[in-house]
Amino acid sequence: MPENKRTASGALGGILGLVGLSAVAGLLVTAAVTPAIAVSGAAASSAITIFDKMPSYLQPDELMQPTTLMAGDRVLAKFYDQNRSPVTFEQIAPVMYDAVLSSEDPRYYQHGGVDLIGTTRALLNNAASGETQGGSSISQQYVKNVLVQRCERDAKAVEPTETDPVGKTRDEALQECAFAAVQAEGAEGYQRKLQEMRYAIQLEKEYSKDQILLGYLNIANFGGVTYGIDAAAKRYFDISASQLNIGQSAVLAGMVQNPNRFRIDRVEGSIVDADGTAYNKQPDGSIDDVDQSTIQALYTLRDNGEITQEQLVAAADGYSETKGRQLYVLSRMEADGKITHEQYVQFAIEPITPKLSETEQGCGSSGAPYFCQYVVSTILNDPAFGAETDDRVRALRQDGLTIQTTLDWRMQDAAQNTMNENTPQSVEGMKFGSSAVSLEAKTGRVLAIAQNTKFTQDPELAQSDPSYNSIVFAGDSTNGGSIGFSVGSTFKLFTLVDWLEKGHSLNETLNGRLQPVPNMTNSCQGNWVNPGGVRINNFANSQGYVGTPMMFTRDSLNTGYLAMAAELDLCDIANVVKKLGVKTGDGKEILMANANEVIGSDNVSPIAMAGAYATVANGGNQCQPKVIDKVTTADGEERPIPERVCSPALTPEIAATAAYALQGVMARGGTGSTANPFDGTAVMGKTGTHEGHETWMIESSTNATTAVWVGNWDGDVDLFGQYFNGTQLSDMRYVLARDIQSAANEFYGGDRFPDPVSNLLRTQQRDLPNVVGQSIDSARSTLTGAGFRVTVGDPVDSASGEGTVAAQSPNGGSAPAGSTITINPGNGQTGTVPNVDGQTVPAAQAALAGAGYGSISIGACQRDANAPAEGQVVSTNPSGGTAANRSTAIALSVVARECP
After folding, report:
1. Residues 102 and 203 in one domain
2. Helices (H) and strands (E) in the chain, counts
3. What is the C-alpha to C-alpha distance for residues 824 and 822, in angstroms, rounded to an integer?
4. Widest distance between CA atoms in the chain
5. Residues 817 and 882 in one domain
6. Which molecular function GO terms apply here (predicted)?
7. pLDDT above 50 for 519
8. Which of 287, 223, 299 is nearest to 254 (CA)?
9. Is residue 56 part of a domain?
10. In this predicted model, what pLDDT tens digit does every residue of 235-248 receive, in sequence order?
11. Phi, psi (5° rounding) for residue 139?
């Protein structure tokens, strides 16, 4: 273990580092450095002046660390510019310290920040060769890494301008940082080296040797985006830094000189011929010659008889250049007495055998990529993560945040599983999409986002293969890249709420029959009128009916809701839309400027619609949808999260009555009943269809809300009549919503919805016209115009024919508005029995037959010697003047001289 102490020579080194180095620099100006600095006309004294004017204090910044999105106790995704997992001094294997010090700075614990011997040698070599080479102490290398990281942290993309039409991407800015830190030549290179020295000396005054050494190993690059010794150990050997052995430590220590050259995760290996000559095999299969001096130490061991030819071949067969670098580190460790010669031989002949641990980042590696992408959009667009875009990018990629999301893996798995089973990833001839989102109604927490497509951020792949997409269909243009979809009849919720808020009853009666759209009032935007007599049809070309909002909601009757809207102010409906948190998918206010908006012509995101329905389910308390529960820094301190609030939007009475109407949708016979799990948990909901190319199903318990959209994410191909695995595309919404809500009911439960307000269920009494004697058509028109529904019953006995009302029930007075009145046509068979009293029997029989009565008989007979010979009628049954069906039997009571 390296010692944390300062020796006398170390203290002297500190003094010489500041005073002596200026002298060294001045001497070197005349000896070797002068040609470079003389470009600016500086002399020896100028070099000292330049040094003295340089900044003398460097405060190391917080290390860049990956930001981690969590879902419960599982990692959802990581994002980073530098993949790093900082460790403490004790969490690094002691042999790793030995390896890096022996190879990079063997006098580390003796000098004061600058190794004058190594630096002087390097400067002389630089002057002779014209190149800027090593010689930096660990402290100087730490300084360089701190400066590179600071530059990368501040790197920004540059938008194209007139003077710079190309601009600069953020990746290009990052590359410039690295180049400026390590590749500057000439006077700039020397000045950079001098600045590193000054900073290194200052660091040694502020921090202990162990602190600087630890800082270096935590900040150093080990190839690609792997930074820090622990991340390197995990990346290349799938172990922690504390578990590194001698050979592994030597590999990693050798990497820091040129990380991307010596990394062992890209080159597939080397091939070695029989005599041990090695060739690098590149990923593309090509073969490159290798400088055999890189593994000369193996040849020496073989020639000395310490290893066999077979051992040499095995050791060299893999990452030949890296092997050569490892051998150098091992030799320095042996020279410094850190390892024995036997250990040197043991690890020299051991092949480099990486055990790579994948370091995937981004949403593509997530188990819930579209939820993940929605969270990323939130981070990159919400001021809680920084005032400027670059600040938010740093929060995502550099700040080492732990962001606890709202995702519930149980709900996510249920949603994605049913999505995978029941929807195709693409459909020939259309841009087919499907999305499902679930919210916790009482908090607004987004529990799951599922989508039918495969996630990619490669635009070319998405363009060539419609089964790939990066757009989050559940989101909007700010969060997810979607502009939403026409919501169809799910939008009727807002008219329903305004209807109730204005004191109207669910049982009021309106004419919901198909007719020209009535003119409508909008006190904010100007009234909507329909001078051309435009009609808006119902689903399946239904003619509609006279009914109530309760019925219109259950049956999703467009004409019924248009009749409701005509009695309201569209501006008030727009205000309901706003207070329930709904805008268009591209962030615009919905103004309700025309009749089509009543039935959902606007594009809205599924998340926004889910939030609106969750408000009703939550007793009128609106909770803005949220995907982040908690944010902590790398130090464990909490940071503010995006502001999402819960606040009253509807009164509990209005919410309860609206929920009552929406429960009718999910009951048997309602348009949404197919999506009802019928598992004992009460649910409300609403269906929606727009022009056949967008379909919706939204349903909710008191605790969880599910919104499903299936349709064209671009275009207008009809979903009806097209099938996948036996299910019509337009019907997939029911299966998805049912399965997902079933899971929600299992995991989150739900209570009975509160009872509706009786005043909003009141039934109106209206005057009931008597239509007996009117034609059937006229009677129907009279009754429907008065606010009643009409049923034509069976014919009844009547003198009137089948085209005339012979009876109605109820038959007058008043009746509940919207109730059904039965009218019965006549059968044309009723007549009046003629009065034949006093007539002779033959005359009476003739009169009755002439009136249409064919069944005539003698009922009672009394002898009377004075009666006419033919007999005389005393009375009839039915009696004369009575209305009776002509099939009625007529019995005659007679007097006769002789009775039969």
Report:
1. yes
2. 30, 33
3. 7
4. 174
5. no
6. penicillin binding; peptidoglycan glycosyltransferase activity; serine-type D-Ala-D-Ala carboxypeptidase activity
7. yes
8. 223
9. no
10. 999 999 999 999 99
11. -60, -40
Burial class (CB in 10 A: 0-12, 13-18, 19+), 367: middle
* CA-closest candidate to residue 790, choices 536, 508, 513: 513
Nearest residue to 178 via CA among 221, 226, 136 = 221
The CA-CA-CA angle for residues 62, 66, 68, to 5°, reads 125
- Within 10 angstroms of residue 499's Cβ, the number of other Cβ atoms is 30
Secondary structure letter of residue 489 according to DSSP: G
pLDDT of res. 570: 97
> pLDDT tens-digit profile of 563-615?
999 999 999 999 999 999 999 999 999 999 999 999 999 999 999 999 999 99
C-alpha pair distances (Å), 177 with each of 144, 157, 170, 209: 11, 13, 11, 27
Does residue 1 surpass a pLDDT of 60? no
Residue 387, domain member (yes or no): no
Helix (H, G, I), strand (E, B) or coil at 703: coil
Phi, psi at 183, each rounded to 5°: -115, 0
The structural domain count of the chain equals 3
Distance of CA 31 to the CA centre of its chain: 66
Q: How far apart are CA 731 and CA 408, in angstroms?
A: 26
Half-sphere exposure of 53 (CA within 13 A, CB side): 7
Kindly give the pairing relationship between strand 603-604 and strand 830-832.
unpaired
Which residues, 6+ apart, have CB-to-CB distance to 285 below 8 Å? Answer: none
Query: Which residues does residue 698 pair with via DSSP β-bridges, in sequence order?
Result: 686, 707
Find, among 18, 36, 252, 16, the residue nearest to 132 by Cα: 36
Q: Are 330 and 352 in contact (CB under 8 A)?
A: no
pLDDT band at 154 (very low <50, low <70, confident <90, very high): confident
**Residue 263: which domain range?**
81-349
Q: In this predicted structure, what is the pLDDT of residue 17?
A: 41
pLDDT at 45 over 50: no
Residues 219, 220, 225, 226: is their CA dihedral positive or negative? negative
Tell me, yes or no, whether 778 and 864 share the same domain: no
This prediction's pTM: 0.81
Residue whose pair of structure tokens reads 């001021």 in the numeric block: 383
CA–CA separation, 815 and 481 (whole Å) = 55
Quote the CA–CA distance of 120 and 204 in Å, as a whole number.
20
Domain assignment present for 751: no
User: Can you tell me which residue has the tokens 């129907």?
Assistant: 780
Tokens matching residue 164: 């710079």
CA distance 716 to 432: 10
- If DSSP codes are grouped into helix, strand and coil, which group holds residue 180? helix
818 and 842 inside one domain: no
**CA distances, 15 to each of 8, 25, 202, 467 (Å):** 11, 15, 11, 67
* CB 411, CB 744: distance < 8 Å: yes
SS3 track for 648-699: ECCCHHHHHHHHHHHHHHHCCCCCCHHHCCCCCCCCEEEEEEECCCEEEEEE
CA distances from 621 to 441, 488, 494, 578 (A): 9, 24, 15, 14
d(CA 609, CA 390): 31
Round the average pLDDT of the chain to a whole number and report it. Answer: 87
The count of other CB atoms within 10 Å of the CB of residue 587 is 11
3-state secondary structure 239-302: CCHHHCCHHHHHHHHHHCCCHHHHCCCCCCEEEECCCCCEEEECCCCCEEECCHHHHHHHHHHH
CB 14 within 8 A of CB 107: no
